[in-house]
Design goal:
Blueprint (H helix, E strand, L loop, with lengths): L14 H16 L12 E6 L5 H12 L3 E5 L13 H11 L2 E6 L4 H8 L4 E6 L5 H15 L6 E5 L6 H10 L6 E5 L9 H10 L3 E4 L2 H4 L5 E4 L10 H7 L7 H4 L7 E3 L20 H19 L11
Parallel strand pairs: 1-2, 1-3, 3-4, 5-6, 5-8, 6-7, 8-9
Helix pairs in contact: 1-11, 2-11, 3-4, 5-6, 5-11
This protein binds N-carbamoyl-L-aspartate (NCD).
N-carbamoyl-L-aspartate binds next to helix 2 and helix 6.
Length: 314
C-alpha cells in the first residue's frame, strides 16, 4: 500500500507498486469517471522553489480532476523563504494545512529533508540535479504504452547527462528491469555522473556505453531520451553558450533511426529537437506529457489512501 508514503526517488517504489500505478493510470485514462471526485475535501500543497510548467500544472490538474483542491506557490519569491524561513519550518507548517505536499527545489536532498519534517506524504517534483521520480513514472508509463513492455530495450540518453535529474532518475529506474542496455550521448563536460554509471548501473550489471556521437549510435536505439542543457545549473554563461546546441535532433538524424524507435523528452525543449521532428510518428514527447497527468492522479489517489495500488478501491 502506498497510503501515507513519501516519494523522494524512484527506488522508494517497488516494481510491483509501479506496475500497480501504471495499471491504475490506464484505467483513469480510459474510464471517464474513474476516481472522479474521490479526493473531494483533500488538499494538495504545491511548494515550488524552482520554475515548472508541466509538473506543477499536471499535479494541480490531477488533484482537481480527483475532486480535491490545491494551494501553494509557484516561485520562492512569494513564500517566506525570502525572509529566511527554513525548509523544515515551511514544510511543517504546510503539512498541517494540506493532505499531501508536492515540492520542487534547486537543492539536492531537499525533498528527503522535507519528508523528515512532514506529517503528510511528500512527493519530490525535482531536487536540483538529483531526482525527479514522477517524471520517471511518466517516462516508464510512456515506454510501457508505446513499446508494450519495459525490458529488453536499448535506451539512449542524449544531452545534459550531468545535471539532468530526469536522466538520473530514469536510468536508475530502468536498471531494475530485465535485459536493459543504455547508451549515454553527451559532450565530455556533461557526462553521466559516476554514481549512476559505474555505481548504480555497474552494480545492477546493466551494460552501457558512453559516446559524443549521436549519429553513430542512433540506429541501434529502441528509445531515445533527449534532454535540454540545464542552463540554471551552470556556473558560467560562456560554458552554457558553448554547449547548449551540442545536439539537435532533426529529420536527417531520424532517418538513421529504427522505424519503431520512440523519441522521449521530459520538456521543456529548447533547440535540441527541431520542430520538424514533431510530425514524425516516433516523436512521443507530447503524448508523454499527457500520460504524466494520469500517472500523477494514480499516485495522489494511492498516497492519500483512496485506492489500493492495484486499482481496487479501499
Ligand atoms: C524537467 C525538470 O524539471 O527536470 N522538466 C519537467 O519536469 N518535465 C526537465 C527540464 O527542466 O529540462
Amino acid at each position: 500500500m502506498l497510503k501515507g508514503r513519501h516519494l523522494v526517488e524512484p527506488g522508494d517504489l517497488s516494481l510491483g507498486e509501479m506496475e500497480g500505478l501504471f495499471t491504475l493510470a490506464e484505467k483513469i485514462e480510459t474510464e471517464d469517471d474513474y476516481l472522479r471526485e474521490s479526493c473531494r475535501g483533500k488538499l494538495l500543497a504545491a511548494l515550488f522553489f524552482e520554475p515548472s510548467t508541466r509538473t506543477r500544472l499536471s499535479f494541480e490538474a490531477a488533484m482537481m480532476r480527483l475532486g480535491g483542491s490545491c494551494l501553494g506557490f509557484a516561485e520562492p519569491g512569494s513564500s517566506s523563504a525570502v525572509k529566511g524561513e527554513s525548509l523544515a519550518d515551511t514544510v511543517r507548517m504546510a503539512s498541517s494545512y494540506a493532505d499531501v505536499i508536492v515540492m520542487r527545489s534547486p537543492k539536492e536532498g531537499a525533498a528527503l529533508l522535507a519528508s523528515r519534517y512532514s506529517a503528510v506524504p511528500v512527493i519530490n517534483a525535482g531536487d536540483g540535479g538529483h531526482h525527479h521520480p514522477t517524471q520517471t513514472l511518466t517516462d516508464l508509463l510512456t515506454i510501457r504504452r508505446l513499446r508494450r513492455s519495459i525490458g529488453g530495450l536499448n535506451v539512449g540518453f542524449c544531452g545534459d547527462l550531468k545535471f539532468g535529474r530526469t536522466v538520473h532518475s530514469l536510468a536508475k529506474a530502468l536498471s531494475r528491469y530485465p535485459d536493459m542496455r543504455m547508451v549515454f550521448i553527451s559532450p565530455e563536460e556533461l557526462r553521466i555522473p559516476d554514481y549512476i554509471g559505474g555505481g548504480i548501473l555497474g552494480k545492477a550489471g546493466v551494460p552501457y556505453t558512453e559516446t559524443g556521437d549521436l549519429e553513430k549510435v542512433i540506429g541501434g536505439l529502441d528509445v531515445l531520451y533527449m534532454t535540454r542543457v540545464q542552463r540554471e545549473r551552470f556556473f558560467n554563461e560562456e560554458d552554457y553558450i558553448r554547449l547548449k546546441d551540442s545536439y539537435i535532433l532533426n529529420t536527417e538524424k531520424m532517418a538513421l533511426a529504427k522505424k519503431d524507435m520512440i523519441v522521449l523528452h521530459p520538456l521543456p525543449r529548447v533547440n535540441e529537437i527541431a520542430v520538424e521532428v514533431d510530425d514524425d510518428p516516433r516523436a512521443a514527447y507530447f503524448k508523454q506529457a499527457k500520460y504524466g497527468m494520469f500517472v500523477r492522479m494514480a499516485l495522489l489517489a494511492s498516497v492519500l489512501g483512496i485506492t489500493g495500488v492495484g486499482g481496487s478501491l479501499c
